[in-house]
Amino acid sequence: MATERIYLDFNASTPIAPEVAAAMRPFLAEHYGNPSSLHWAGRPAKEAVEHARGQVARLLGADPAEVVFTSGGSEANNHALKGVFFALRNRGNHIVTSAVEHPAIIQPCRFLERIGARVTYVPVDGTGLVDPDAVRRALTPQTILVSVMHANNEVGTVQPIREIARIAREAGVLVHTDAAQSVGKIAADVNELGVDLLSVAGHKLYAPKGVGALYIRKGAPIEPLVHGAGHEAGRRAGTENVLLDVGLGAACDLAHQWLGMPYVRELRDYFWWQLQQAFRGKIVLNGHPTKRLPNTLHVSFLGQSGSDLLAVLPELAASTGSACHAGLVELSPVLKAMGVSDEVGLGAVRFSLGRTTTKDEIDRALDLLRPFSRGPA
């Protein structure tokens, strides 16, 4: 009999919530009009998009007019970085970010460096945490943007965005945060965080893939990433994707009841405790022990290869923090920036729980993992 599969990779992607699918269903066939059309077919589509915009805004504590729908978190990040650079390059060309950002931040920064930007990548400590004073020291009269992620996608460390934003705003510098991993898990109120721009990825919070949003504080100077007709109040050209926008709105509406994820946090902590009992002295936690997403458990199985371990457990869906090529360990940039050694990083595995994770699934995952406490996979 086939072993039942266990999904512990919710930081990679989440299933579409049933409530989200139900909200989207009418827009698969019934409401097909163009939202920009003024006739009977276009009006319901326009109303649906604006209703969804309001749902996203409420979760972020923003005004609906400050929310721009995008194709996902990567586009939102690219729009924030490139949009501010092109809007303010006559004032300055310096951007400050962190060494543990997602490639959707790092790669746009590398691109901007090729066309004249200067980028400072501030370091993190051994838990993946950015020191706000490091951001302060990095600022120059030419700094136009600080972009630091709200929570790390690999180890889950939650950054001190409020303190970083206060420092940047005192210097007259715009602040962006990539909140792809935090929105829907912990509070991400734009006014409490003090940010000018914030990125959302739909498939990280039980909405479909291919949709996201960029919060742009009213008055923040930013050039459109996509030019064309005047969609999204002239900030992002292209006919609105009504179906996916509705899905993201419904997901944000649903997320209010899940903020903090106390049940998921309890399961994660139970999982970690049981792993410690099974792998006594042979397992370590990566990331901050307390300032961490409530669903994320990133560990290293000492003396083992995380990739090899998961390879022999195909029924267990999780992610590794390293890759092995021709016998050489290649750590993720995040683990490298944290100063994790190759030896420890080799055994890295990220388990990320979700709303649908059960204790039975955790217990079955533990049953699969315990035999490896005796030696390598």
List descriptors.
alpha/beta; Aspartate Aminotransferase, domain 2; 2 domains; 7-stranded mixed sheet; 14 helices; globular
What can you tell me about this protein's structure?
By secondary structure, this protein is of the alpha/beta class. It contains 14 helices and 15 strands. The chain has a seven-stranded mixed beta sheet, with helices on both faces. It has a four-stranded antiparallel beta sheet with strand order 9-10-15-12. The longest helix has 19 residues, at 42-60.
Given as residue ranges, the uncertain stretches (5+ residues, pLDDT < 50) are none
Architecture of the largest domain, CATH level 2?
Answer: 3-Layer(aba) Sandwich
| SS-based class | alpha/beta
CATH topology of the largest domain: Aspartate Aminotransferase, domain 2
Helix fraction bin: 25-40%
The CATH superfamily name of the largest domain is Type I PLP-dependent aspartate aminotransferase-like (Major domain)
User: How far is it from the N-terminal to the C-terminal residue, by CA?
Assistant: 23 Å
Could you tell me the strand content as a percent range?
15-25%
Write down the secondary-structure element order.
Answer: EHHEHEHEHEHEHEEHHHEEHEEEEHHEH
Shape label: globular
Q: Total domains, how many? A: 2
**Rg, please?**
21 Å
Major β-sheet strand ordering: 2-8-7-6-5-3-4
What is the CATH level 1 assignment of the largest domain? Alpha Beta
Integer average pLDDT: 94
Q: Would you report the number of β strands?
A: 15
Sheet having the most strands = 7 strands, mixed
Per DSSP, the total helix count is 14
